[in-house]
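RETRY 2/3 - previous attempt timed out on the joint model. Re-submitting the same 428-residue input unchanged.
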Amino acid sequence: MKIGVLGTGMVGEAIATKLVAIGHDVVMGSRSATGEKVVAWAKATGKGKAGTFAEAAAHGEVVFNCTNGTATLEVLKAAGAANLKGKVLVDVANPLDFSKGMPPSLWVCNIDSLGEQVQRAVPEARVVKALNTVNCEVMVKPSLVPGDHDLFICGNDAAAKAVVTKILKDGFGWKIVHDLGDIKAARGTEMVLPMWIQLMGVMGGPTFNFHLAH
Amino acid sequence: MKIGVLGTGMVGEAIATKLVAIGHDVVMGSRSATGEKVVAWAKATGKGKAGTFAEAAAHGEVVFNCTNGTATLEVLKAAGAANLKGKVLVDVANPLDFSKGMPPSLWVCNIDSLGEQVQRAVPEARVVKALNTVNCEVMVKPSLVPGDHDLFICGNDAAAKAVVTKILKDGFGWKIVHDLGDIKAARGTEMVLPMWIQLMGVMGGPTFNFHLAH
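RETRY 2/3 succeeded.
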């Protein structure tokens, strides 16, 4: 499948590298197609390609937003609404604000969410919020955390959620994916982050996840 | 142990009844000591006593705040700061606002929390936020949910957290209790509620809980 990955940070690199490894045709998008990180990534993978945000978006049938939440809306502008029209847009970002100390706050929450802002910014994309409640290494290798543990997704388009669930399960190895409903449920999955970050301190690292016992 | 329970709703009734059943000396506090609900509860338990908020607070070495979050600060005023001085105050409430439809929002979150507001309202009480992430039946009978699943507590006073953890484990039957740190961590545990309520819809009921896989 043709997939675009927006963002060259730890999250973008983990997801793009995994997608290449499982046989997808991936363009990683950066501000510049000749940026150091994106070029190094493409070379390291052999098969991955470097591009601009717009090129990655145009390339993908599915596009992963792996940018820092603070940069997300600006990056989507650079990617271009036309390039994202009809595409499945997987929003992995969180609106974390560390500027006020610990625990971090969210710069949008409660009566809105970054997921909803993304959907409003590109209304013709089919946004699916996913993977934002786990560390980037766990995202693509859930077996790093022992036992059963779960992902939570949401979005307005059922077919888009089915596409993403298939990648998460067959591609990344997730066993349990809960569909929380429409994109408004992103409020809930993003608001888990303050507790997640407290837990990272308590657990001594990010290699943990929630399992829904029921 | 002498325990006060503020609130006669489902949460107060579940907790007060369990505390009586495991041998504690419990006063359930209500607006009036002759209120219909609190009198019926005392009669039903045989050993439980009915009182005002102030009487329940004065009675307890440990006091459970089981009021609706919207009423909590007013009830604490009625209970009286002097009656809560030095006491372990277990804050079970959530600042849920259903007035704007689903998913509900929180009337305080992100850079403050109800737990912190409670601690500020009664600065000489030793506030421990606990139990607010599970349904009231699960609070006092965790075995209703199969498998391992966890509680999250926080507060500024380590000895108070130890007292509460002992009640949760030895009294209520909880096996896993994570201490998230000081009372600011209540932001995190309260902000889980919007996702919890979405999950209640997805799971078809409130009998579920989170387990931290690690």
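The CA atoms of residues 27 and 49 of chain A lie 5 Å apart. Closing ticket.
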